[in-house]
Each structure stands twice: as structure tokens, then as C-alpha cells.
Amino acid sequence: MHNMIARTPGGKMPVQIPDDTDFLSFRDQCESQDGWVARYNKGGVTVWCRDEECKTLQKLKMRIVCKDVTAETLYDVLHDTSYRKKWDTNMIDTFDIGRLTVNADVGYYSWKCPSPLKNRDFVTMRSWLPLGNDYLQLALSCEYPPKKDYVRAVSLLTGYLIQSSGANCCTLYYLTINAYIKCMVQIFQPFSPQAMKKIYKACLKYPEWKRKHEPNLKPWRYPEQNTLPCINVADLTVQRADSLENIDESSVSEEKAQHHSDDDET
């Protein structure tokens, strides 16, 4: 993502809103098989990992085919924070902080981790773009005051690609590049094969729910509906993992992590 991050002489990395080239590059990564190794293929969800030369990074990609769901519905579900509170059982809180442009904002998300791990949270700059029959959403962590009792997680790049595959069917890709964390913390991240299935099930119920909850309110589609306070992108800097508290949770067993992951299966 060549335009999203540019390091300054002082070490700070200002956030730059992605352009069409960045969105196209992300779509290419989602569709490419080069260098990706399949690690999971079950229940309609495929998971790939990629070994990077830089061992401080973790790269993960997932895909699910969503039958009886339009690409537009899936796009709305990913944006609608009010509806997310209905289906995302891992979530503690989510809210929009402010808007940058008609298709970019800053948002907060926190999720539960099992004891003895501390709960995690993200603050991200998010941007989105309809591109032909595709819908894309990108996010990266930006600096924001920490919250007590949470460990701030860092996403160098996270995003979705939604591709229409018929009148009432679509495919969802999820791709993330994160800073490596000691222990199996990535198993607890809010997006897992089970979470992909939850998104799919949430999409099936969304049209009926939305009809009863401000059906015409979709500020991600209609920017004139956006009432968030404005934020200057020049005031944002990229959150770096080495600037955060170093939490070593390596004593947490892989078995306990896997058990928690299995508990999410529905």
C-alpha cells in the first residue's frame, strides 16, 4: 500500500488516505495465490497464511462464499455499527470517532479475550470504495489515547473485498497484516473462520432488521447523512507496535487458545 504510509525524518508515520491504486493493489492481494499456503478449508471458509521475510509480521487471508446474500447487503453489514452490536458476540464496544472525507473515517473497536489475557482494542483509519461490481474496505491502526484495562492491538493493514457472483450471491475476502505478538493472541482476534460464518449469518438477517431500524440511514452510502465531527488527516499518525506496552502472554497455552476458538463455533 504505497500511498497509505510515509515515514518522516522524526520517525512518525503520517496516515494518508488510500487512492484507487491502493484499493486495486489490495484486491490483487486478495485474489492472488502466489506465496499463500492454505491452512484451513472447512464449512465453506478457506484460510491462507503467508510467510514473510520480515518475521515481525503476520499475514492472514480468509474467504467465504455467501449464498442468498447480495454484495450490497454484505457491504452494509460491515459498515453498520448499530447492527454489529446484535451479532458480534466477541465485541465489547465499537463506535465512530470522526470523519476524514466522504469515504474515510476513524473508528474504535474492542473485543473480549479469555482470562488471563487482557482485552484488546483497535483504533483505525477506515476507507471504503465501490469498484465496479466489487466493494472494498481498508483500515490501518492510528495513534489514539489508550484506554485503561485494554491492550492496544496494531493492524498494519486490514481489509475486506466483496465480489458479486450473481444476483443473490457474493464472496467475502478478509486480509490482514499485523505486527507479530508473543503467544497465540492472533487466535483471539475478532476475525476467525467462525467469525466469517457469523458475518454470513448476520447478512441473512440484516434486511429484515434494517427495515425496522432507520432503513434509510446509510451514511457510508450517502455522505450527506454523516454527522460525525471532522478530523484532519494531517493530525493522524500510524500506530506502531514498538510504541505500545510490551505484554508477554506467552505463558498462555496453545490448547487454551484453541479451546476458546472452538467455543465460537456455531
What does this structure look like?
The protein is of the alpha+beta class and 266 residues long. The protein contains 5 helices and 10 strands; from the N terminus they run H-E-E-E-H-H-E-E-E-E-E-E-E-H-H. Strands 1, 2, 3, 4, 5, 6, 7, 8, 9 and 10 form a 10-stranded mixed sheet that branches. The radius of gyration is 18 Å and the shape is globular. Mean pLDDT is 83; it is low at 1-10, 182-190 and 250-266. Residues 32-175 form the START domain. Pfam families: START (PF01852).
Topology, please?
Layout lengths: L19 H12 L5 E6 L2 E6 L6 E11 L3 H9 L1 H7 L3 E11 L2 E8 L7 E13 L2 E8 L8 E3 L2 E10 L4 E11 L13 H19 L42 H10 L3
Parallel strand pairs: 6-8
Antiparallel strand pairs: 1-2, 2-3, 3-10, 4-5, 5-6, 6-7, 7-9, 9-10
Helix pairs in contact: 2-4
TL;DR of this structure?
By secondary structure, the chain is of the alpha+beta class. Helix content is 21%, strand content 33%.
